[in-house]
Amino acid sequence: MGNLTAHAGISSVWFLPGPDSPYGRRMSQTYEFVVVANRLPVAAETAEDGTITWVRSPGGLVSALEPTLRREPAVWVGWSGRYAPDPYSTGDLGVELEPLPDGVGPCPLVEIELTREEMEGYYEGFSTSTLWPLYHDAIATPVYHRHQWEPYVAVNRRFAEQVAEIAAHGATVWVHDHQLQLVPGMLRERRPDLRIGFFLHIPFPPVELFLQLPWRKEIVQGLLGSDLIGFHTPGGAENFLAVTRRLLDVETDLDSVTVADLSPAGGKRRVGVGAFPISIATGEYEAIARTAEVQDEAASIRAKIGNPKHVLLGVDRLDYTKGIDVRLKAYVELLEDGSIQPGEAVFVQIATPSRENVEDYQKLRDDIELMVGRALGDHGVLGAPPIQYLHQPFTREELVAFYAAADVMLVTPYRDGMNLVAKEYVASRIHDDGALVLSEFTGAAVELDGSFLVNPYDADGVKQAIRDAMAADPEDLRRRMTRMRAQVENHDVDAWAKSFLDALEAPQ
Ligand code: ADP
Ligand code: F6P
């Protein structure tokens, strides 16, 4: 990218000419608590005529952090979903993005401006085509491209520089997810005074897989710039400790790594490592589910699809890790073998558009839509299709109405760090009914022990679990759901954020 992109400014930072620099002195407000994630909580949707609408960013990270930041004063640093002009292609050094409009997010936002080309390498490339499949058991084949690693390093550096500039002395910085694993190390080099936490929202893979990564040492060293590294499950934390022992000459114990302190203070530094299972704003989901509007909407959803005996539901980003194909195949076979009679059930699959510039995701969409089309052709009944497929975003209220309408929730990922949808379903079942079919390879499976657990690779097992869930005795379902609701009530997202931040602030 060279120096030419250095003009790309940061929207909420302003510039004043100063005596110490021919280019002007950069002045910025500083913050005591800085959240850093690839995406800002809002994303720009640009229409063909150039009009921008600000929408909530997709995915579990934003769902989890947004309620926390409505309570904790913080600034959020990230990308806005729009591309910075690239002076190489436009030839125009003067063009800049419009500043973010005031009040579009839950807290002040600082935009990292990235060009289309940078996003291709750093996000669509290294984050989404290397790290994402590698960290999800290599379900798709990870690619290892040097020309994608380089922009990953450069963009991580950009994030670190920006945070170094706006963090107050001794501030707490909370860095998130696989896209930014080098930021803790880069930030510590620049600002050893900061308290740096890192949380990984996806699984951390076993040693045998992680060792494939040509830049494995750099990633581990980047993470070890943190004071505390959090994972969803104890298994993720153990994998990270095992990888660290294997790759670096450092001391580890059950919940920490001791590294050399490279700051002027010297000596040793302890990096905490632990499991902090993420959660949802349980009370908010319950409150939404209790409203008459949502209960009426749930009844109306059931009526619109013909009031079948069983409504089955899937809600996912359209991602190959989610096992949408697993449940579709199982459902179709249940129709074929007569376990489900025509008209008896409707399966509603909500598939949120996701990562649509990436080839694996384009192919997945084609595959899923082919499966849905075939199933409708083979098993459709005039006026009563057995599958409803919605490739659309919904508001939280609309989603809760779907949860409230569904007798059986199907959550069948091949691998998932947590899966918040499973918890959202449970929180929305205010009458303590409904059944959750849940893959044992989700973080949620560790906590939701009232679910019907399945191995997504076992087709007959998935079919049997769906049969069991549909045929379950209401009293059994009530006992299961009561247990799961107690779990999500006692371990909500506030408890998650508090436990991580308390551990981060605790003396090491
Ligand atoms: P991931 O982080 O991989 O996307 P999660 O299940 O942990 O998976 O989180 C997904 C989040 O996105 C949930 O909070 C869910 O409510 C939300 N979501 C899923 N589908 C939609 C949709 N169609 N419209 C709006 N939000 C959605
Ligand atoms: O949960 C993992 C994650 O990569 C998050 O960072 C994000 O919330 C979600 O998946 C959606 O991914 P993306 O930001 O690539 O659309």
Descriptive notes:
This protein is of the alpha/beta class and 508 residues long. The chain folds into two domains: 2-278 and 497-505, 3-Layer(aba) Sandwich (Rossmann fold); 282-490, Glycogen Phosphorylase B (Rossmann fold). The chain has 18 helices and 19 strands. It has helices at residues 60-71, 87-90, 116-135, 146-166, 183-190, 207-210, 216-223, 234-247, 282-290, 292-304, 324-336, 359-379, 396-405, 420-428, 444-447, 459-471, 474-490, 493-505; strands at residues 14-18, 21-27, 31-39, 42-46, 52-56, 75-79, 109-111, 167-176, 195-199, 228-231, 251-253, 256-260, 268-275, 310-317, 345-352, 387-390, 408-411, 435-439, 452-454. It has a nine-stranded mixed beta sheet, with helices on both faces. It has a six-stranded parallel beta sheet with strand order 16-15-14-17-18-19, sandwiched between helices. Strands 1-2 form a two-stranded antiparallel ribbon. A hairpin with a 5-residue loop joins strand 4 (42-46) and strand 5 (52-56). Helix 4 crosses helix 5 and helix 9 crosses helix 14 (420-428). It starts with 13 loop residues before the first strand and ends with a helix. Mean pLDDT is 91; it is low at 1-27. Adenosine-5'-diphosphate is lined by residues 59-60, 63, 315, 317, 350, 352, 393-394, 399, 418-421, 424.
